[in-house]
Amino acid sequence: MILEFELTDQKSGIKIHGPRMNLLLQLLANGMVNGALFAVLACAFGLVYRSARVFHMAFAGLFLIPPYSAYAATEWLKAPVWMAILLGIAAGVGAGYLAERLLYRPFHRRNATPAAVMVASLGVFIVLENCLALLFGNELRTIERGLATRVMFGPVGLTSIQLVQFTVGMLTIVGLAIAIRNVMVFKAIWAMGDEPGLIPVLGLPLMRYRNLVFTLSGGLGGIAGCLIGLDVGVDPHMGMSYLLIAAVAVLAGGIDRYGGWILGGFILALLQSVIVWKFSAKWMDLATFAVLIGVLVFRPQGIIGLRRRLEEE
Amino acid sequence: MENYLFHLVVLIGIYSILAYSINLVTGYGGLLAFCLAAFYGIGAYVHTLLRVGNSRLASDLLFSASTSFPVALIGAAMAGGLAALLIGLVALRFRGDFFVLTTLGFQMIVFSVLYNWTELSRGAFGIYGIPRPSMFGWQVRQSWEYSLLVGIANAVILPVLFVLYRSPFGLSLKALRENERAAESLGISAFRQHLSAFVIAGMCSAVAGALFASYVTYIDPTSFSLRESIFIVSLLLFGGSGNIRGPILGVIVMILLPEALRFVGMPNTIAPNVREIIYGFALVFLMYWRPKGLAGDYAVR
Question: Which of B39, B46, B41 is nearest to B198 (CA)?
Fold first, then answer.
């Protein structure tokens, strides 16, 4: 039996007509697009978590700076969209750099405990969130862009914005994967996560690497943030839920595997799509955190993570 | 004016129960837990459901009480303890970031259930018209009566917690927080002691939630969100943990700070944001210069 029904997609606000199977395909396609976004966020969070060993709570505020900068550029300076986005990403890079210089470096110099750094980072998140709310208000803001056209792929339709999101997201992921695999600096950064003390011994600049990690994370967060701002829009209080999604993707996929972060991001997004199909959009958060707790209990090293020997921990 | 002062006393009373409960887990047990608001919310909702009865939730008339206040209070404590037991069984396998994330996840799950299970909690609409407390022929109506009620609750709960802090149980928690492996080698079970601390904290915060629900007579899930959990943790870290004088200092400062801003003449539209900005900065500077908090004995690790 084919069920005809109509449903408004939560993310894009598009009415979807058609039989139920097509609806699932449509939701899975949307899931892939969101998966690319989640994976970029997971990279931004995971890079810091893996290499600098910092639970980067402030990221929840930092990645909203780029979309708001882009919004401000289009609204107040009447800049074209592409320039606004570039400005936004530049703002993200700057914010990441400043976060390391002003927040994490002093704490690192003091040998602060991880929990103290996390709480301080949380404090910065609270400050950023409320500054954004003061400046831009609590409403959802979308970066000004042209009307989205709809492209059909057989039974599945995607908006042009979603195609841009997916393409840019995938390019970012692949680019970073190549960099991590081949570029010497990134290899050193990856090794820094295992033993930060050895970096200066090898004559490499530890502080500069840490700075690079946070700056890069700010830029990646900026890409994801701007893509979100182009489509569904941003509000100052949405940061925490995206940060938690990124953290869950990294932990569920496996902290020590770059592929795991990407896999985690896609799995979470597709799972959310299936939940929307099977139950309702309102249970998405529940599913995300059920996955987190389930993975931590049954596979603490992550889905494709490597189990470490006891003496390595 | 009097009512306003009594209102502050009630708030301080409720938050001091919360602060001393999390002090047992974080200050003595050394576990940074971001899920106290979940227990607080469970307490508030269980109390409310026991008071009004589930059958009447569909209608808007929620005024008839179906169980008495003390029963609802005990039920709330039981539910909070049970929730703490469940999440403790899972979360206490981990330490550090994983523990924090598991408790965070639990907090988000509880919030999501309260928000979306509309048949149970009426979701975002909240439940209003919660009956005011009455027991042993004493009808609590005025704010001073509420202050008295919250004061009595504090006088019952806090001494128990203070005794626990100094008992062999509290000392074993302290030993675990300083060096878990060494403490376990002396025959202290980390899992059991931490779990007991968790359950006690869950029960006490659920009682605080019940008091809150009966005081404001209207609850909705946003009072029990992750934000609230973060607030509870930060008021403990602000005052200082691991002793008796720290938490109450944190509560008084954090509750009175927004009121002080009100007297400075900050416009109401920006006051909540400015307050949060101040407390965000306070967290950063505190963690930098005084990780132990204003008057604490223990710095989180």
Answer: B39
Residues B226, A112: C-beta atoms closer than 8 Å: no
Are A228 and A141 spatial neighbours (Cβ–Cβ below 8 Å)? no
User: At a CB cut-off of 8 Å and minimum separation 6, what does A274 contact?
Assistant: A24, A27, A28, A31
AA letter at B276: E
ipTM of the complex: 0.87
3-class SS of residue A146: coil
Q: How far apart are CA A53 and CA A206, in angstroms?
A: 13
Q: How many residues does chain B have?
A: 301
| Cβ <8 Å between A123 and B291 | no
Exposed/middle/buried for B293, CB within 10 Å: 0-12, 13-18, 19+?
Answer: buried
Alpha carbon A186 to chain centroid distance?
19
Q: Give the residue from chain B lying closest to A279, CA to CA.
A: B116
Q: Chain A closest CA to B98's CA: distance in Å?
A: 8
Strand runs (DSSP E) across chain A, as ranges? 7-8, 15-16, 150-153, 156-159
User: What does the alpha-carbon distance between residue B141 and residue A181 come to, in Å, rounded to a whole number?
Assistant: 68
Tens of pLDDT, residues B186-239? 988 889 999 999 999 999 999 999 999 989 888 888 889 888 999 999 889 988
β-pair partners for A141: A234
**Has this prediction a pTM greater than 0.90?**
no
